[in-house]
Amino acid sequence: MPAITKASLGRFIARQGILIAFVLFMVGFTLANERFLAPENIMGVVRSSAILGVMALGVTFVVISGNLDLSVGSMMSFSTIVVLDLHDKLGPGLAIPAMFAMTLCLGALIGFLVGYLKLNSLIVTLGMLSAIHGLTLTYSGGKNMDIADKEGTWFSIFGQGEALGIPVPILIFLGLAAFLGIVLAKTPFGRKIYAVGGNGVAATFSGIRRARVVFSCYLVSSFCVATAGLLQASRSLGSQNTVGQGLELEVLAAVILGGASLLGGSGTVFKTVIGVLILGFIQNGLLLVGLQFYAQYVVTWVIIILAVWLDIAAKRGKLLSPIA
Amino acid sequence: MSQNMQTSTAPSLRDKPVLRLEGIVKTFPGVRALDGVSFDVLPGEVHALMGENGAGKSTLMKVLGGIYQPDEGRIIVGEAPVVMTSPLQAKATGIVFIHQELSLANELSVAENVYLGELPKKAFGQVDWKKLYAQTNEILGKLKVGFDAKTRVGDLSIANQQMVEIARALTVDAKAVIFDEPTASLTDAEKVVLFDVIADLQAQGVGIIYISHRMEEIFKITDRISVLRDGQYRGTLRTADTNEDEVTQLMIGRKLDLSRNASHHELGDVTIEVKGLSCGNLFQDVSFQVRAGEVLGFYGLVGAGRTEIAETLFGLREPSAGQIFVQGDEVQIHSPADAIAKGISLVPEDRKGQGLVLGMNCRDNMTLPQIEDLKAGPFVAEGAEIAIFDKYRDNLDIRTPGWRQTVGNLSGGNQQKIVIGKWLSMHPSVLIVDEPTRGIDVGSKAVIHDLIRALAAQGYAVIVISSEMPEVLHVSDRIAAMYSGKLMRTFTSEEVSEDNLIQAISGLSADKPSQKASDQSKDQPSDQPNDQSGNQAVA
Q1: CATH no. for residue B49?
Q2: Is B82 exposed, middle or buried (0-12, 13-18, 19+ CB in 10 A)?
Q3: Which of B313, B360, B422 best probes binding to A when mutated, by most A CB atoms within 10 angstroms?
Q4: ipTM of the complex
Q5: What integer pLDDT is reported at residue B363 of this predicted model?
Q6: Which residues of chain B carry a pLDDT beneath 70?
Q7: Contact list, A201 vs chain B (CB under 8 Å)
Q8: Could you list the residue range(s) of the whole structural domain that residue B187 is in?
């Protein structure tokens, strides 16, 4: 048993910092409000995290491949508005695949620009955030979109249904997480994503077609966004044009909290799910102790900074680094 | 290359040393990095410090530079013991470092770089440009370089950037200058200039510590050699009284064989043949063939087109003309995937940047090119992967605790073996190895050389590209000499000698207009990608 030194303690805190902070939060919230650990509350947190979680799964792929996706929030608004509009025009059976196809086209466009044209993903997706927002407003004419007959459609099962006593959004989130987790960890495609994100040049020198891998990651991301849009639309059966606004940062926060490096090459789907839940519980806990809803935006930012700082600190082995 | 032996000022042992280390000990948790290191540097002496990677050279330099404090022992500069507390203090004491990695601001002028952080000022804090340029030009004059204080550093060749580093060192009254692998990125012609500068410093009575892995340089320019092994001081030899074998033995505890080497086994059919291959202005009309079981070495200056040929064969560049035949069939190669499918593999020159995903484990790196073929259903067949890793770990004697080890934590030699294993597991017919031992310590070099010979004996057609002449001579059956994008001549191992090889890579055996040797110190025109002038000075 090695002696506990100040340095080794520092490293431990840096490595496990997020989990330690999470446990402290949980204990504090439970003491402050006994409802926090009640089964209904826990189920409620997971359920309300499902949409964010589904989006975070796709962004995990993009981040591991060494890129960013800041367009997921406005893309989710687009998917939601489109599927609600087409629901009344084509019926839900056709509206859903049509919406998926349109969202995947957006993902393919980003994938083409970042993968094949090698443009900076931050610039491309930041631009797409704005462009897709404009696209959504043009499509809807700026009006809220509502389903005419909210009682008589089976479309609501995705967002409101239950199976085996578990809400359908949770089943979809966890099912998709299991599937994508296996893709990432166990298939050649997953291995290539880690290689491209870890060292794109070396991956190319090993015969991997880097552009194709990056392109595919954005397709995965847009598929997840389409799924999230479906859940959102099905839950509310009506929506504003800005329903996904700001989600891109929360999604990124969850992915980073899970431990994926923004430099690419590391992270897992399982860790992202943990990151999503941590974020969800902390936001829920803050509401339960009586913090205003809007304070969450500030708290989310603090959590992102904390996560990034601990990530860097774990790599250099100390919490504060003198600039040499 | 004996023509530029420097006439050093032959320091006598009666001179007072400029720098003396006495029993330096430095321990880190679990490791005694330096264990009683003592040696001294005389004025006007070039003192080589040698040792394998991990022998303690870097730690010793950090102690000297005030980055680490020694646990025991003394540093004596001139007469007085000093306690080094920071790099700045070391510099003020007259101990100056020329680092391997250049640390210059490319967008600034030479003068601004030389006096970075200590620019001469006028009243009200304005920079005194006149004084700055005058002082800098005075130092540059001492170095006899061909550029002036106002030149933008980014426009200079690597060699001249190194001169700027040296100029920076000379802004103080240097007593000892420490060169850390100064020739790592220099061409042979540029080395000549560097050695001239070192000789000038010697003549001014400065003591020099010269750290290098390159034996030929050590024996050309140094007066004494001190050797470290595993943090221990193994002794100091007078260069004139020793030889490479003795030094190597001190460093690694055994002999290193670098004798000429030709295959004794039967060569097979022609595996790869290249006819009239060109790629823009990088190289033109290159033709050669390599038989199964043969090692063809490519030798030439940096920028002569060697690496570019390898990259073209591997599908990283599109040829502008010419044909490539593998096993007699013409092949079209447009991507690394195409090349791999045709049985061509490349161990690239930049192991960390191009060869490996450093954050990945050993097994995943090794199976990366064939990951699509190692499937059980839709999944990666991890059992098959581990079997491949185990096989090549044993065959290549890769020292690692297991396949889970992150590649970035391995030594250079073992990393190189992972890259080689990666390609051998693809069963290629042609193996191209670019700079096989760059940045690898002496002991592991021999292992890699033996491995290349053994692979040829197993029937691979091997192409080795190297900037180190002893290496090319040692591993190759035939040697292709490149100069300025042209294949000048291919030598058999009977024909080749150091002299005719140097002539060929300097363009002397072709009808090139000869250039003045004095051009060598001039800055290169920026439209030329690499330095080709000054070759005559080498030959």
Answers
A1: 3.40.50.300
A2: middle
A3: B360
A4: 0.84
A5: 95
A6: 1-14, 29-31, 53-54, 100-102, 185, 253-264, 442, 508-539
A7: 353-354
A8: 1-94+175-253
